[in-house]
Amino acid sequence: MKLAIQEHMGPWPSRMEKFRNFRKMGFEGVELIGRGLAERREEVKAALKETGLAACTLCTGYDDKVLSADPRERAAACAQVRDLLKLAGELKAGGLIFVPIFGPPRLPDLSPFKGAIELEKDLLVRILQDLAKAAEENCTTILLEPLNRYEAHLLNRLEQAVEIAKRVNSPSVKIMADFFHMNIEEADIPKSIEAAGLWVQHVHLADNTRKQPGTGSTNFTSGFAVLKKLGYDKYMALECGFTGDPEKAITDSVKYLTACMK
Fold it and tell me: 123 with 112: CB under 8 angstroms?
């Protein structure tokens, strides 16, 4: 298991300074924000090369219209995803984090033929089968992220993301686990991770308060034990807010997480 952090985190003004400090703090990877990444790719490449950090994943960067009722909006959003997958390949990132939809359904309820959610799932599988080809071509992965019920309705638990990934049936479509969302949606975090097994290819770290790990009530040790049992050797990225001084909060959280992994 390797620690990573999202590129915008920390109090340092320049990207190079951020990356240098991330490396000193013990991080091995950086999760890049997809929005505007194409325009700053050379700056990012230079910072990665100097520091030795890996671009572990890309997060966000496409319009939330992949499951729109408007085919033109769907096509435009999918084109953005393909561009990000190409960038992920160029930066040798392991995957693009993919949330299919935020908020309520946008497709019509066609009961008794199919309800809106059933239609969404069928459409999502078909779209992902197409996008998976772009992921394969760029030697990267699409990582389905379940969110809590207050942010999304379609994929809330790991098992629901696994169901979609199995239907897509591509080595380039996996899932990720986010401790903050799991704290809300999973009855038993270690059991849910174990059931998802090798489908889990990325992890987000935040405590139950959505602040840095170690400041809330989430039991990271038990979740990490299952990941270790599964042979998980990929990245776990901080995606959280901070309590107190950001630099100290990050440093303390790294120490805390390192202890939880032992």
Answer: no
Q: What is the pLDDT of residue 99?
A: 97
Banded pLDDT at 206 (limits 50, 70, 90): very high
Tokens in use for 192? 């849910």
171-204 confidence digits (pLDDT tens): 999 999 999 999 999 999 999 999 999 999 999 9
DSSP assignment letter at 197: G
Which residues, 6+ apart, have CB-to-CB distance to 12 below 8 Å? 18, 21
Helical residues (DSSP H) of 52-108, grouped into ranges: 71-90
Q: For position 35, which CATH number holds?
A: 3.20.20.150
Query: 59-78 burial, b if ≥16 CB within 10 A, otherwise e?
Result: bebbebbbbbeeeebbeebb
Q: Which of 160, 167, 153 is nearest to 101 (CA)?
A: 153
Average pLDDT over residues 128-147: 98
Number of domains in the chain: 1
Structure tokens at 128: 């992902």
Confidence of residue 239 (pLDDT cuts 50, 70, 90): very high
Secondary structure (3-state) at 241: strand
Predicted TM-score (pTM) of the model is: 0.95
Structural domain for 133, as ranges: 2-261
Tokens 């405590």 appear where?
207
DSSP calls for 190-217: HHHHHHHGGGEEEEEE--TTSB-TTSSS
The per-residue pLDDT for 259 is 96
Q: What tokens appear for 135 in the block?
A: 């992921």
- Asked whether the beta carbons of 249 and 242 are under 8 A apart, the reply is yes
CB 42 within 8 A of CB 50: no
On the 0-12 / 13-18 / 19+ scale of CB atoms within 10 A, 231 is exposed
What is the helix (H) or strand (E) element at residue 2, kind and residue range?
strand 2-6
